[in-house]
Amino acid sequence: MSSEEMTCYLSFDIGGTHIKYALMSASGEILEKNHVMSPKDLDDFWSAIDDIILTYRSQIQRVAFSAPDRVDIDNGIIYLGGVLTCLDDVHIKERIKENYDLPATVLNDGKAAALAKVWQGSLKGVSDGATIILGTGVGGGLVLNGKLRSGVHFQAGELSFILLNPANQSFDKMSGYLESAVGMIEKINQIIGNSDIKDGLIAFKAVQSKKQKQ
């Protein structure tokens, strides 16, 4: 077995509802995956991350994070955590290095999705392309001339804060609120009378059932 085949990474996707994580091989194969609820505060966040890293510490050579909103990929800092305001100005890369002596990469979630598509998905071999991700907000990533674009303020391709009505600039009138998958799930559950308005499985089952009856 080659050294590359033995290399494993721990990948985190920090979302507004869940933190999803996976143990992955260097070729991109998902070996294990799971999720925990997103944190209420910074202590909860690090407690969850530390527990997961310690579970896989002997198997991993690097840690990767995708996170919402404004992320500095060069320095591994989340400047703005979107709806997770407890993550504002959190130095992920520095802490992972200090606590575990592991290299860490931190990237905006939309840009991480774009890189994944370039690596093994629908943008493979594509010079110019884009991704749109629907979650608690609406994220995006731009690939131009075969390279991921971060932008001067690390927010190239971000869609959540597009004003749909310039006369009303409150967040509940922006695309990230009105067009998010989480917002859609909440509305569906309210319509069908499900008390757990964040239950995506029930919401999508209701949509699928409706389609089958048509």
Automatic annotation (TrEMBL):
Documented EC number(s): 2.7.1.-
Transmembrane segments: none
Keywords: Transferase
InterPro entries assigned to the protein according to its UniProt record, in alphabetical order: ATPase_NBD, ROK
Pfam families on file: ROK
GO MF, any single term: transferase activity
Source domain of life: Bacteria
UniProt cross-references to PANTHER family, sorted A to Z: ROK (REPRESSOR, ORF, KINASE) FAMILY (PTHR18964), SUGAR KINASE (PTHR18964:SF170)
Family: Belongs to the ROK (NagC/XylR) family.
Full protein name: ROK family protein
The species this protein was found in: Streptococcus equinus ATCC 700338
